[in-house]
Amino acid sequence: MAKYLLLKHYRGAPTPPNDVPMERWTPEEVTAHVQYMEDFAARLRETGEYVDSQALSPEGMFVRYDGPGRPPVTDGPFLETKDLIAGWMVIDVESHQRALELAGELSAAPGAGGDPIHEWLEVRPFYGVSPDATE
Amino acid sequence: MDEDQLRRLIPQVIGVLVRRGADFAAAEDAVQDALVEALRVWAQDPPRDPAGWLITAAWRRFVDAVRSEEARRRREGRAGEEQAVDGAGAGDDTLQLYFLCAHPALSPASAVALTLRAVGGLTTRQIAAAYLVPEATMAQRISRAKRTLAGVRFDQPGDVTHVLRVLYLVFNEGYSGDVDLAAEAIRLARQLAAVVESEEADGLLALMLLHHARRPARTTADGALVPLRDQDRSLWDTEMIAHGVAILQAALAADRLGEFQAQAAIAALHADAQSVEETDWVQIVEWYDELVRLTDSPIARLNRAVALGEAADPWAGLEALGELDAALPRHAAAAAHLHERAGDRVSAARLYAEAAERAASLPERNHLMRQAARLNTALGRAPGSGGDVTGPH
Fold first, then answer.
1. B155 close contact with A: CB closer than 8 A
2. pTM here?
3. Which of A10, A29, A112 sits opposite B392 (nearest CB)?
4. Which of A7, B74, B233, B297 could in theory staple to A122 by disulfide, Cβ–Cβ 3.0 to 4.6 A?
């Protein structure tokens, strides 16, 4: 088994086909979207492939060390063009193929009009095991 | 004897060890060890005097631990002198423990962890699980807290205000896994109110009971938030509400008002209403005035503005809100609600979306997003049709 990180982006990923801000969906579409993701996580818990998932608030800033005795430099809140992570899910799966398959499924979460949002997800293997290792 | 009853003995046992001359950290360790042994042995061989058994076992552990240390002779000497005070009220010891665990030298997070362990008798594993951190992290936090307290005398009087704040922090976490922290905080507040003369301790207990009684109605089965307006009030625990109100009334009768009593009074007025419309908003605003006077808290002012919007009209609420810093938590959500009530649905939709971005939790984010979506749908803003509302998903 190998662990993979599925990264969801607010911004920074290519624009998905069904790109409508969530506040302009209907309340039912919002609920359906949330439900889809919960069902997805629940299913992975049953198959033993779920490790962890967290959502991140959009509030964040870039911060950097600025030399001894000085307060850290901040580059201010994330700007429009910067990459912005919305959250992640960690899965532990048999193969790289399976990780891609699940990412594809998660990306099919419904959005405006009930159609899949085709959200781009970043899939990153954890170090420590060969990505194709199987047991 | 079940685990809960066992946990209740812990403050008393730690208290006895400290009175006999053990320092707090060592006493706490010894009692945890004795507890593990008790869980193992008692199933087969339950003791006649559980507290006595625990004291003996913990004292033995403590003596074993210090036997090799230089300080042994001195400690045992002191123990001999202080033997005489044993048997003094267990209540006093418990109160001292509350003060010690809420010592101002500790960070709030450390004070919470230490209180749950030393007064609440939870294991490090249970506390870690409740706060969703690894057990090793919580163990570090607790031992660092105990190091901070090394040298603090056990019999110094503490400030009950600190203790109440710590208990309210525990209550507000409220995770429900192996340990429901809200229920645990209520148990500890009840115990505290029994041993301390303080209307505010009663006020806090009442406040917790009044909030806790409404908990079943606050979320749907799948975890979505239900705002007060839409809650099924038949799900509220009326017995617990009556209990909270009785405690509050007794406290208020002493005429020494404090912030927890004022907050409890507000909670009681909500709990007393059959619907949002029937709520006595005028009185709620008056209690918020008291709360602002007592605490000068911007959050109290924000809540007062929302209540004023109900008691008078939404414009009055918006005016009061306008005097506050827009960066306050929930400022946008409150403004959205008031704008909608004032009939300005476009502003309300924009503000709900803004509030969603700044929400403190996912259920809150989803709730606010649905509010924005509801208004935008009603306004006929077709998906993707552009307009002034932009932003990330």
1. no
2. 0.84
3. A10
4. A7
